[in-house]
Inverse folding.
């Protein structure tokens, strides 16, 4: 009997937590505050080691950064806004920093709606309170067309100001994002399939090839205690710079390295001491406003032999469109040489890299 009560307690506790914090897909709803002080919502997802949030363009506002807050327990981060889509679509994406990886677990393909989601007559609108509690409001789907859904709030309730960016869910599936309201009792939603088409094309093909915002976008300053890292020297580069002023040696000093965008460019670094060093983190930065393409897929390798001929892969990933590649803290690994291979870039043309930091 005691065992039964203990089991029931665990089950009821799990159900209570689910009710408070929501399901995995719905918990990816985030609150957005833009630089004009206006509030809205978005939907957060991860891809290739980077966390993103999608939202209406008017929710992102005119400034290059937004504050992103999760459902309870609330975590807050900063989003660097990118709006590369055609002028008539109220859509933007932000690269999210400062939110733990285990809170950004949803995937873009969740927006690929199945037939049940496309036929559903009822849904729920998910919003977050300032303290991160989830609020679900019943919706009745009134009309569907190729790009949008029209839905009415059930029970005579009204659409609150600041609802833009909140998604309608059918079960676990986000079927559309609110972006306009014809009257207080209903809203227009951009269909998730339309959002998916635009995001997928941008993330897979275009990357950093977007018009930079009027205000300069800069990376948040690194932790002062971590700035600089271990002192590196450039051993060799497989591709020359487009101009001697943009030499690869700039990666460990002042200036930038700009090369002609050939696939598979490789740069090998040694340590200034000429000895083995224990490395647990590597960061690469690139300016988004310099007019050049950013690296995309990066392989990090290391070698321990004196000549630097036998390399093993340490990690790989993608530089995010805000110009940062960060391995995060990893298990320390002894290295004598570090090699970066840049397989491709986010857009065509010369590629720029600003700094390589190892700790």
């Amino acid at each position: 009997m005691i065992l039964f009560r203990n089991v029931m307690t665990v089950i009821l506790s799990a159900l209570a937590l689910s009710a408070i914090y929501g399901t995995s897909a719905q918990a990816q709803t985030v609150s957005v505050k833009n630089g004009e002080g206006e509030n809205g919502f978005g939907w957060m997802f991860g891809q290739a080691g980077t966390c993103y949030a999608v939202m209406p363009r008017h929710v992102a506002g005119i400034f290059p950064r937004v504050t992103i807050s999760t459902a309870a327990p609330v975590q807050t981060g900063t989003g660097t806004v990118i709006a590369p889509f055609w002028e008539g679509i109220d859509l933007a994406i932000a690269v999210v920093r400062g939110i733990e990886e285990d809170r950004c677990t949803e995937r873009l393909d969740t927006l690929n709606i199945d037939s049940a989601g496309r036929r559903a007559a009822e849904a729920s609108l998910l919003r977050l309170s300032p303290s991160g509690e989830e609020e679900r409001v019943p919706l009745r789907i009134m009309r569907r067309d190729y790009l949008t859904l029209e839905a009415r709030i059930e029970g005579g309730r009204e659409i609150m100001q600041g609802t833009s960016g909140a998604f309608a869910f059918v079960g676990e599936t986000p079927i559309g994002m609110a972006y306009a309201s014809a009257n207080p009792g209903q809203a227009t939603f951009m269909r998730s399939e339309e959002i998916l088409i635009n995001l997928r094309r941008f993330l897979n093909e275009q990357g950093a090839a977007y018009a930079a915002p009027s205000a300069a976008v800069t990376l948040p300053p690194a932790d002062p205690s971590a700035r600089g890292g271990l002192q590196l020297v450039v051993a060799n580069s497989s591709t020359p710079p487009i101009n001697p002023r943009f030499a690869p040696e700039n990666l460990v000093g002042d200036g930038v390295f700009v090369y002609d965008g050939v696939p598979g460019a490789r740069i090998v670094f040694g340590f200034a001491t000429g000895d083995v060093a224990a490395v647990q983190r590597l960061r690469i930065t690139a300016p988004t406003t310099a007019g050049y393409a950013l690296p995309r897929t990066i392989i990090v390798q290391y070698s321990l032999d004196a000549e630097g001929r036998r390399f093993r892969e340490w990690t790989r990933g993608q530089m995010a469109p805000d110009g940062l590649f960060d391995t995060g803290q990893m298990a320390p690994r002894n290295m004598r040489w570090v090699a970066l291979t840049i397989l491709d870039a986010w857009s065509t043309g010369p590629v720029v890299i600003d700094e390589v930091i190892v700790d």
In short: The longest strand covers residues 134-144.
